[in-house]
């Protein structure tokens, strides 16, 4: 089964997985439908388009959050800096923030998250600009089980969700004030790396480093694309180090081989 990607936390961190041709057409409604379909493809399938500037020179990130669940400015800045460091977008990276009211559920399936995207997304690939949808939910993932708690899921080629409410529950008792933005940064960058094609998810492996026990994740245990088994420990170590885990050399090599920086 392929392949949704999610970070799972709790006492246990599970990192599970989870081009239409443009025709000339006089019917503008049909043309509009063709444009949106390019952003509804499988996770990882836009790896090269996101990494290189061959087709897309700039990127817009439509960052939508439920009222009260806006991510920290520091985490957004960290994500943009990460994208700038790993991709070629000479036309720049733009973040458009938008607030929406709560859909009023405590739990959401991936299909429900995708429906929220479909109802609220306004930015799709357009000309030489590629569009990404990032959604910050007020509810929990319906896939949570016991101590296995999903923090984020990359579920389409240019779409991911962050379960911001769950992140806050996991960090609210931590005395270090920047723990939440560190965890937001970690989950956002992890999910973004999945849509960039890691690991073996659109960016072809340049060396044998996919974790055989945890598909689409890296076998290097200090790489962020590693499937870690203890989220609380992971959060503690991250907070103590005061930084987000970095990509290891093998994951960077995969991105470079597929058009990245
Ligand atoms: Zn993952
Ligand atoms: Zn790696």
Automatic annotation (TrEMBL):
Residues 1-22 form the signal peptide. It comes from the Bacteria. Keywords: Hydrolase, Metalloprotease, Protease, Signal. GO terms for molecular function: metallopeptidase activity. This is Membrane metalloprotease. It comes from Flavobacterium frigidarium.
